[in-house]
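Retry 2 of 3 after timeout on previous attempt. Resubmitting structure tokens to design endpoint.
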């Protein structure tokens, strides 16, 4: 499979990019080089290789859920744009 100038023009149009003819040529060459490199991967013997979702073997990377003291309400409300009755007041989103 190879990329043509017409393919690059189509993608540029979809992305609303105004490319010069020189840029179209450059991107056509670059995209074809990427595809040629990807074709080399087909030569690899992947028999017996397990599919992976991540390059590292991760199990559970979350911290333990520990009960701890919350911030005092006065300190929390210092960052609020507006407050009412010890609660953060926000604009209504429904009429």
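Retry 2 succeeded. Sequence:
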């Amino acid at each position: 499979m190879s990329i043509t100038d017409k393919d690059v023009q189509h993608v540029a149009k979809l992305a609303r990019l105004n490319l010069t003819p020189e840029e179209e040529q450059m991107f056509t060459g670059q995209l074809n080089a990427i595809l040629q490199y990807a074709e080399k991967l087909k030569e690899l013997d992947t028999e017996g290789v397990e599919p992976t979702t991540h390059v590292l073997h991760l199990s559970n990377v979350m911290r333990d859920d520990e009960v701890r003291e919350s911030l005092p309400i006065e300190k929390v409300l210092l960052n609020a744009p507006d407050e009412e009755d010890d609660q953060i007041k926000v604009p209504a989103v429904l009429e």
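Attempt log closed. The chain is about 35% helix and 5% strand.
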